[in-house]
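The protein record passed on below.

***
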Amino acid sequence: AIYIVPQHIWADIADPLTFENPEPVGSGPFTFGHWRKNESWLFNRNVNHFHAPHVDVLVAIIPTPEVWIGMLENQELDANGTYVRGDSQIETLEAMEHLELVITPSVGVQSVFIDTRVLPGSDLAFRRAVHHLIPKASILDVVAGLGGGSTADGNFVHPTSDFFNPDTMSYPYDPEAARAILAEAGYTWDDEGQLHYPVGYDVGG
């Protein structure tokens, strides 16, 4: 989708991809204050808005959880909404009496992608085999240490979504199935267990 933009500003822009739009047009409850690369955005309250906010908002770019947790503890931040890494961070935040900790479900998807432009990623059999070799449940236990989350299996849509189709093909963790798929596709293994391409594959690219 493409946003509707004001023609009188954008029509004569030679290279829209590099145009920084120093005076953006908007109608929301905030006006643009500043943008400092890799540092922060500032949104000033729009006093002319029909439901004007009472405060300005500074959005800081914070590189690691350790930093923003420390800033929350020192009351340098008013709020932070992000993922946390396991129970230990939850316990740290819960111990801060000046904070209210709110945990909400997420329909976000954490993904690993294969480059399908070149071998072996361009080979469907190889991709299917790799899918059977990923221990999704074990990864979930480590990553989603809060007791939530679910494996997407063969479906990119989150299981709680109305658009989720449980009848799509699934790829359970099954090393033997992966080996059978590769063997059927012509892959072989040497005495050291290293996988080799099928005969005749052009892997030069």
In short: The CA atoms of residues 13 and 19 lie 7 Å apart. The chain is about 25% helix and 10% strand. The beta strands are 30-36, 40-45, 57-60, 188-189, 195-196. The longest helix spans residues 175-184.
